[in-house]
Write a structure and sequence with these properties.
Strand order of the largest sheet: 3-5-6-7-4-9-12-11-10-8
Number of domains: 2
Low-confidence stretches: 1-18
Order of helices and strands: EEEHHEEEEEHHEEEE
Strand content: 35-45%
Mean pLDDT: 92
Shape: globular
Number of helices: 4
Radius of gyration: 20 Å
Distance between the termini: 59 Å
Largest sheet: 10 strands, antiparallel
Length: 271
C-alpha cells in the first residue's frame, strides 16, 4: 500500500504553495453581553457553544468537518463533554479557544479545548470531548478512519496538555428526585433536527435558583449524551445530591415510555 497523501491547504500567492495546516486550531471570540448572566459572566452554555464552534471551524478547515460530511450523509455527534473553568470571560471580553484532536479510534475521537484571554496571558479553563461519526440515514456509527483514508490521523496532537480529568462515568441511583418537566419547542432544535446539545446544559442549570448562582461558582460540568430527543418530546429532570456542592442530573424523554437521554455531574464552589 502506498503512503497516504495528507490533506493540504492551498495558499494563493504569486506561486502556489501547499502545506499542512497546524494540528492545533486557534479561534477568537467575544463575550457578547446578551450571552452573559446577571453577573456579566458568559453563560456556561454559551461557552460550550463557542467550544463546539471552534471544533466545527477546525474540522472543516482540515477536511473532515460537516461541510464535507454532509455530502456523504455523515455527521459528527457529541457523546461526552466536560468543561472545567477557573473563571469566565465577562461581557465584551475578547477570548480565544485552542482546539485539537487528542486521539482517534474506529468509532470515536477525543477533542480538547483551552480557553484563554485575547493575548493568552490568562487561562480561563479547559474542555474535553468525545465524538462519534454516524450515518445520517441509519443513525448508526460508522468508521471515521474511512474518511479521506484516515485523514484525521494526520492531525492528532497527543503532546499538548489539557490538565483536567477526562469525562467520567456519571453514577446515579434510582432514588434521584424528580424536580422538573418541560416541553420542547422550535428554539430547542438544532440543524440536525434533534434537541441541541447545549440546550440540555441551559435547562439543567435553570434547575438552580438565582440565589444559588449568586453564592456559588460553577467549576465543572460533565455531561454524557445517551440518546437523541426531538421537538415535542417532554423532558423530565431528576436531581441527586452527592454533597453540599456537587450533584448529578438525569434527563429522560417521555413518549410511550421513559427513556434516558442525558446524564450529567455538576460541581460548584462557594464564592
Amino acid at each position: 500500500m502506498g503512503k497516504r497523501k495528507p490533506w493540504c491547504k492551498i495558499m494563493a500567492s504569486n506561486t502556489e504553495k501547499i502545506e499542512m495546516l497546524p494540528k492545533v486550531g486557534h479561534y477568537d471570540f467575544i463575550a457578547e453581553p446578551f450571552h452573559c448572566d446577571f453577573q456579566s459572566r458568559i453563560f456556561m452554555g454559551h461557552m460550550g457553544n463557542a467550544m463546539l464552534n471552534a471544533a466545527d471551524f477546525h474540522s472543516n478547515e482540515r477536511g473532515y468537518g460537516m461541510h464535507y460530511l454532509n455530502t456523504i450523509n455523515k455527521t459528527w455527534v457529541l457523546s461526552r463533554l466536560a468543561i472545567e473553568m477557573r473563571d469566565m470571560p465577562k461581557a465584551y471580553d475578547k477570548f480565544s479557544i485552542d482546539t485539537w484532536v487528542e486521539g482517534a479510534m474506529k468509532f470515536f475521537t477525543s477533542r480538547n479545548f483551552a480557553v484563554a484571554n485575547h493575548d493568552g496571558s490568562h487561562v480561563y479553563g479547559y474542555g474535553r470531548s468525545i465524538w462519534a461519526l454516524i450515518d445520517t440515514e441509519t443513525r448508526q456509527p460508522v468508521d471515521l478512519l474511512n474518511i479521506h483514508n484516515g485523514l484525521i490521523l494526520d492531525y492528532i496532537e497527543a503532546e499538548k496538555k489539557c490538565p483536567i480529568d477526562n469525562p467520567g462515568r456519571v453514577k446515579m441511583n434510582k432514588d434521584a428526585e424528580p424536580v422538573r418537566s418541560i416541553n420542547t419547542y422550535y428554539n430547542d432544535v438544532d440543524m440536525n433536527g434533534h434537541i441541541n446539545s447545549i440546550k440540555y446544559i441551559e435547562h439543567i442549570l435553570d434547575l438552580f435558583s438565582l440565589e444559588w448562582h449568586r453564592s456559588h461558582i460553577l467549576k465543572r460540568f460533565d455531561i454524557a449524551y445517551v440518546a437523541e430527543s426531538y421537538q415535542g418530546d417532554k423532558l423530565n429532570f431528576y436531581k441527586q445530591h452527592i454533597d453540599e456542592n456537587e450533584c448529578c442530573v438525569r434527563v429522560t424523554k417521555e413518549k410511550e415510555e421513559e427513556v434516558e437521554v442525558v446524564r450529567c455531574s455538576i460541581k460548584f464552589l462557594n464564592r
